[in-house]
User: What shape does this take?
Amino acid sequence: MRNITAGMVYIVGAGPGDPELITIKAMRRIQQADVVLYDRLISKELLGYASSQAELVYCGKAPGSHAMPQHLINEALVNYARQGKSVVRLKGGDPLVFGRGAEEALALATQGIPFEIVPGITSAIGAAAAAGIPVTHREYAASFACVTGSRCHGDKSPIRWDLLAHSVDTLAIYMGVSELPAIREELLKHGKASSTPVALIERGTTTRQRTIVGTLANIHTLAISMKLSNPALIIIGDVVQVREQLLHAEQQAIAQIG
Ligand code: SAH
Assistant: This one.
């Protein structure tokens, strides 16, 4: 085990929601930090593992609003590190999957600040597993893709729905709740079957997890009637069918033990 170093920034993945799904390395970084700058989607329980002297700084962004603009987060990381502090930048899921961890790391590198990236379980993997959905399966899916459902102002790479509709078996769509009707339209327009199974997983891996299952034909209306809210993932593909089998098998196994 390596101890945390002063003047260094640790860009750490907190995992998908359940605080127990953090890595041992990430946990150690939190325990040894002088400052923890954390995002909205991390489990607040994890902050309880920081030292009582540690400074805890909220940097979270709710969809459509900004608690702290990105350039100020970058500046804060640099300033704390220059004060000789051990800084943890705690992010939901994996810091490099739609997490802007790379931007922060580059900002640090530009200022000559050493950093380490600690990966985490990304929410698509965590939430799908917790909902009984395998993202790959020998019968149903040889590939899966993590896709953003929304593009921000200034984002350069377009979402290739035309290619995603055909060339990837399972789509895991982040930040797609408000865009669900448009995403569905795009996929149908590019020839994805309306009978394709879809699951919406809200607050995946947490005690408040909820899963809504439908097809591309009806998922947008189900989302409205079930009042789907953030954070949620959209999983599209035949693997969603495995959910019932897997949950049933799990219950049987538990019943046998009990
Ligand atoms: N870096 C994060 C993703 C950040 S983008 C990761 O690797 O998971 C934020 C999006 O992640 C949300 O809009 C939502 O689509 C998804 N998300 C994060 N936590 C989630 C959870 N517990 N359940 C479902 N979706 C989640």
Q: What stands out?
A: Strands lie at 9-13, 35-38, 55-58, 87-91, 115-118, 144-148, 170-174, 197-202, 210-215, 232-236. DSSP finds eight helices and ten strands in the chain. The chain has a mean pLDDT of 94.
